[in-house]
Design brief:
This protein is α+β, with helices and mostly antiparallel strands. The protein has one helix at about 50-65; strands spanning about 1-5, 10-20, 20-30, 35-45.
């Protein structure tokens, strides 16, 4: 599991999981407020085998190419 801290109440959590029997990467927002602590519905599940392609495309967007 990896985390990207957005601010003192929000982070993005990236972890391997199973979704409908398939191995997936679950990329989801986690929040900690006075009302709620836990995962939100904001997120995505992608097949593990697409993870490297996703990472390459994110880097491409960041580099502006």
């Amino acid at each position: 599991m990896e985390e990207v801290v957005i601010n003192d109440r929000k982070k993005v959590v990236i972890q391997k999981s199973k979704f409908r029997g398939l191995d997936t990467l679950d990329i989801r927002t986690w929040v900690e407020t006075s009302d709620y602590k836990g995962f939100t519905r904001k997120g995505v599940n992608i097949p593990v085998e697409k993870g490297e392609e996703l990472a390459q495309k994110i880097l491409k967007v960041l580099k502006g190419t």
